[in-house]
Amino acid sequence: MGICGRLTNLNQSASGRNRSALAEAFIHALYRVKEVEIIRAESHWRMDYQHIESHVLLVVTAGRGLLNWDGEKSKLWEERVHICRPGQVIGIQAGEGGLELTLVRFELFRSDEEAGGYSPFIWQEEQVVPVKPVPQFAITCEALGTHWQNESPYKSLQCEAAFLELMYITAQHIELETRLDSINALERTRRYIDAYYHTPITIDELARMAEISPKYYGDLFKKTYGIRVVDYLTAQRINRAKQLMVLSQSRLKDIAHIVGYQDEFYFSRKFKQEVGVSPSAYMKSRKRKIAVHHPHLTGHLLALHYLPYAAPLHPKWTGFYYEHYRRDIPVHLSAYRYSEDWQSNIDKIREVRPDVILSMDTLNPGEKEKLEQAGPVLYIPNQQLDWREQLKLVANYLEVSGEADSWLTKYDRRVQSLKDMLHERMGEDTFLIISLHKSGMYSCGTRSMGEVFYGDLAMKPSFSMDLCAVHTEIKPEQLIDINPDHILVNICQEPETLDNWRNLQTTPFWRDLKAVRHNRVHSIPSDPWREYSAMAHARILDETERLFLRE
């Protein structure tokens, strides 16, 4: 259902010479609502990364959270309205006190004289709109959600009125000159840090540039960017140092000076504190130019304290690696439909001239031939070896078998500790992991889910062992007989799957399941649960602890 409307007759409080360009943009657009979702989430709830196909309006009505968009982060709170654009990748995480959020998917249109009507366009103004918090936001958002869910014959008109009211309130309460001046000045100082991180920079100096007090500047920076000024400056310096270690032959002392540290030993301490390894260990791991051809192999390499020179990266498909390592990996290969983009990926690898290429053994003959022309290739058996054997194979090839043994020892120790705590807390509770894709429902959707959760952690399955096989399709009605104490559900973040998930939750047999009645349905993200690597499995342990021991 599409709902269209135009925002007009904005009153004097947000008009005239004081009205911002943002308010003007709100007024002259034509809107069509595609979907409304009211999210009431407890602490640390997460919405998995989604590749959005329409505009998304996010309005926080209570609590706080974090918005991840294209690898960047923004704080979610009641003083901001976020507008995300088609084509972006977004994910949401609730804060400590939970999060109440209205999410509206909508399209924008503007007058097109040549076409004699309206044509779609993409929002080009600021992504974050600062607003004055007013009670009407929560009231209007609640009304919009209620109208969207009801089956009244007047639903279309009611939703149209509520959405236009929401946009009206947003435009009317956009914070004007004083607030926007502070934000703009703050952004100028952030760009100054980006350009002059290598020079002595103080908060007093930055505050003078922003024409506000040092204390207010520090508080506003943390509130706006979610990080302290000093930590942001340190991150810029360390990131540049890592680039120099990879791309130059400079000595450690010289690199320290280049990025703004006069004391080499202080730089080394800060580097290890930020990165987790010493500068010398980091530089050693970068001497060998390694190209990773398959996304999952990045997780094996990182467990051995090696960083790839080239690897598939994408804010959704390899979100963890993109967020934490994109500045450390000089060459980014395609991770979005990488099996279809293999030719361009191999072309990039050839330009790198790597010492070794890591790939799975699942390539087609043409792809394999081209890859071997780009450099020496180590093929990792996909089905014949489990993840531990794969890790040891990579380590043996790189002549660091001791690193693999050490990592696995620590992993097994962590497994035993976590398993003891889980079994003490969960007792004889039974578990079912399901994956939803399109119209299909699958038990134990990946090897990782089965081997780590049911295998390493020995969590008790709620079904016969024949359903333990990876990617076994099950019918929704079978859930009645399985009836687990807990359900872990992994949902593909695309429209058809999301529609089917919403429909499933409305069925009587779903609502009558024990796990549903006791509020024990747990959403698990694709990253890391669908990745088969050492690093991903360590993160699955963290995810399991978060789900069941941090309540």
From TrEMBL:
It comes from the Bacteria. InterPro entries: ABC_transptr_periplasmic_BD, Homeodomain-like_sf, HTH-like, HTH_AraC, HTH_AraC-typ_CS, Tscrpt_reg_AraC-type_HTH. Pfam families: HTH_18, Peripla_BP_2. One of its GO terms (molecular function) is sequence-specific DNA binding. Keywords: DNA-binding, Transcription, Transcription regulation. Residues 289-551 form the Fe/B12 periplasmic-binding domain. SUPFAM superfamilies: Helical backbone' metal receptor, Homeodomain-like, Regulatory protein AraC. Residues 187-285 form the HTH araC/xylS-type domain. This is ABC transporter substrate-binding protein.
